[in-house]
Amino acid sequence: MVTNIRFCTIMFSFFVLLAILPSSSCSIPRKLALVKPIPIVLKNHKGELLKGNVTVNILWYGNFTPSQRAIVVDFLKSLSPKGRGSPPPPSVASWWSTTQKYLGSPSTITVGKQILLNYPLGKSLNDSHIEALTSKFSQVNTVNVLLTASDVAVEDFCMSRCGTHGWTRGKRGKKYAYAWVGNPANQCPGECAWPFHQPIVGPQTPPLVAPNGDVGIDGSVISLATVLAGTVTNPFDNGYFQGPKIAPLEAVTACTGIFGSGAFPGYPGTVLVDKTSGASYNARGLNGREYLLPAMWDPKTSLCKPLV
Ligand SMILES: *[C@@H]1O[C@H](CO)[C@@H](O)[C@H](O)[C@H]1NC(C)=O
Ligand SMILES: *[C@@H]1O[C@H](CO)[C@@H](O)[C@H](O)[C@H]1NC(C)=O
């Protein structure tokens, strides 16, 4: 296996933004919203994208309850729902449909294999481990997604990233995409499960109620949505991104921290609230699910477009 060394990561760019603001002034985030944002343009580097039928295999590394797995699987199945029972917008499918504007034709996601792994490489993983685990079931137009349980430490998890996507080259030179997302429940909910948990730095807006009642897994869904959108629009480092290859802004990382209209650093924006559960969401999914999904950059308007 020849491998690349670069990983697209979900950086805490919005925390970085907070860090450079003078901490003495509470009004600054609001003022920021009045300043015309610098338009973001993700350059199309014209490389191969993941279109057509794309299979997502899930590798569950460590302990996940059946209800936790169902939250994630229902999210993935809601991206490209087949036939009846598809919820009306704003939905997971309407969120995913923005990727079609990059691809020119849809990327239709199907959930493939699910593999349960009982800590075969222990509880402390690095990038080599992620690659070794995800390269086992490589196939063309397949994304192997590794999800690590809340008791698994992963290199740079919670330091600079909540998840990542990358690619490897197989024996015959074919390229395979993969992704990893960690459950931040015990390690850094304030970073990787924001806005369902108080942020560790910056303005302390009250946390939102997680739509599926699981702060860690609902946070993982945000990261999974982010890395999947990055994977199909920039699978092999030569698709849509802005900035250096090693730390690019991609479809969703270009819009970090935005979930609804009126968002500003530290405030996720106005989203929908479920009258029964009090949970915050902006996307309906299959099986009556609700999810909170990050804004995606729209190549037609060059704007970060939240669902609500
Ligand atoms: C995707 O799969 C469906 C059936 O599962 C098939 O009808 C369709 O032609 C496939 N699309 C592409 C682009 O291969
Ligand atoms: C990951 O850890 C293994 C030992 O567990 C080590 O051999 C390998 O070089 C490490 N890889 C990276 C990228 O740090």
Strand content: 15-25%
Integer count of domains: 1
Order of helices and strands: EEHHEEHHHEEHEEEEHHEEEEEEE
Bound molecules: 2-acetamido-2-deoxy-beta-D-glucopyranose
Instruction: Determine the fraction of residues in helical runs and give it as a percent range.
Output: 10-25%
Largest sheet: 7 strands, mixed
Poorly predicted tracts of residues = 1-8, 11-35
- Give me the oligomer status: single chain
Write down how many β-strands occur, each being a DSSP E stretch of 2 or more residues: 17
* Tally of separate helices: 8
Shape: globular
Structural class: alpha/beta
The average pLDDT value, as a whole number, equals 88
Distance between the termini: 43 Å
Gyration radius, in Å: 18 Å
Main location: secreted
Keywords: Apoplast, Secreted, Signal
Pfam family, one: Phi_1
InterPro entries: EXORDIUM-like
Structure, explained:
With 308 residues, the protein is an alpha/beta fold. It has one domain (47-305). Helix content is 22%, strand content 22%. It is built from 8 helices and 17 strands. Strands 1, 2, 4, 5, 7, 9 and 10 form a 7-stranded mixed β-sheet that branches. A hairpin with a 4-residue loop joins strand 16 and strand 17 (303-305). The longest helix is centred in the C-terminal third of the chain and has 19 residues, at 215-233. The chain is globular, with a radius of gyration of 18 Å. The model is unreliable at 1-8 and 11-35 (pLDDT under 50). One 2-acetamido-2-deoxy-beta-D-glucopyranose binds at residues 52-53. It comes from Cinchona calisaya. It is found in: Secreted, Extracellular space, Apoplast. Keywords: Apoplast, Secreted, Signal.
